[in-house]
Write a structure and sequence with these properties.
single chain; about 400 residues; alpha+beta; four-stranded mixed β-sheet; four-stranded antiparallel β-sheet; 10 strands
Length: about 400
Amino acid sequence: MVDFTLTDEQKDLRELAHNFAEKEIRPVAWEYDKEGTWPQEIIDKAWEVGLMNTHTPEAYGGPGLDYLSGCLIEEEFGWGCSGIGTSLAANGLASAPVAIGGTEETKKKYLGMLIEEPKLASFCLTEPDAGSDVSGMKTRAVKKGDKYILNGSKCFITNGGYADWFTVYAKTDPDQGHRGISAFVVDGKQDNVTVDKKEDKMGQRASNTATITFDEVEVPAENLLGEENHGFKLAMMTLDRTRPGVAAMAVGIARAAFEFASEYSKERVQFGVPIAMHQAIQFLIADMATKVDAGRLLTWLSAVQLDQGKRNTLACSEAKRFAADSAMEVTTDAVQVYGGYGFIKEYPVEKLMRDAKIMQLYEGTSQIQRLVIAREVLLPRTIEETIPEAEAKGREADQKVAETAPAAA
Ligand SMILES: Cc1cc2nc3c(=O)[nH]c(=O)nc-3n(C[C@H](O)[C@H](O)[C@H](O)COP(=O)(O)OP(=O)(O)OC[C@H]3O[C@@H](n4cnc5c(N)ncnc54)[C@H](O)[C@@H]3O)c2cc1C
């Protein structure tokens, strides 16, 4: 039997996240968007009430929440403001490779740091010449004694300007394409790690997006995550775990746009009746509602598969692709329902339409999600091993599961 009932704990958590979004995020969202204001106060409050670092295992001081619970929180963040929500959720992206591939000491130190104080961490994969195809990255890590020397530049790094540490992907074997990439944890507060550029963005303007340059940075060998040259697999495993949350955030944006448009359609009178009485508007509203609900169902499926210890690569790409494209469609239609007012910044849906666009781009574009989906359905994998079994057997087995991961980020 398929049961969509949330547990009492999940319902409480969703209520907590909704109240937080309603009271702390929504009231400042449009103002923060205007100037691209960094939401430090909101980060501090979210950390205080336990809405950050939700997947950090209890062993390292975190709440160790399930992935479905994470999605409930991220939908509410997206509903409140996905720019602020992205700032709140990005620690999860940086932490996942550490949780999967870090040694006990590394996990204690770096995951623990985020639990002890409202600190931030960033995930550094993308480079100017290596976006969808990360195999083209130029950042290098060369082993010298008990250290690696790191050189290179990463762009579009969420929270990059404020991060205390980074998960950095670098080539350790440059001739091996994606099989020559390794992942490291790198301390952010050192002289030769510099924040070069803060991007001025179309949407999600309250989130920080920066270029980070590593110049002869010494990284202790124990900060290598997993095995040398297995960084690409680690990145793919990370994205399987974080894409459900991104999909949830897209559902939240779409839900906000749907709610604004529905209310407006009941108030705005043209041709003597509320525009909601015109069937053309009803059909837009009907499609919006359907896309929000369908996006949420796929998102929950992709999270529940993870919680059940199953590989969710297909479901999370389907969820991310559908929820992101739906958010773009729903917000665009919300502007249509508002008519000319929808195009004006004073009205709420203009921001939502700008914010929705990034959902089709980061953590793998919608085209890349389709590549993954096509590969998963045309070449179904035979490997039966589940995530808990792999984790129980240690990192080596976990990497084996990832061996079959799609070669596109
Ligand atoms: C606001 C923001 C925050 C971000 N945060 C982070 C972060 O925290 N960490 C991080 O590492 N990165 C981050 N990124 C980077 C993001 O993940 C990349 O921008 C994204 O993966 C796409 O890479 P690209 O921009 O180089 O586009 P490209 O890869 O150059 O793609 C350009 C276009 O070509 C299409 N395309 C490319 N290859 C194919 C193909 N094989 N088949 C079909 N179409 C294809 C793409 O879908 C896209 O439409 C962020 C980006 C932004 C804008």
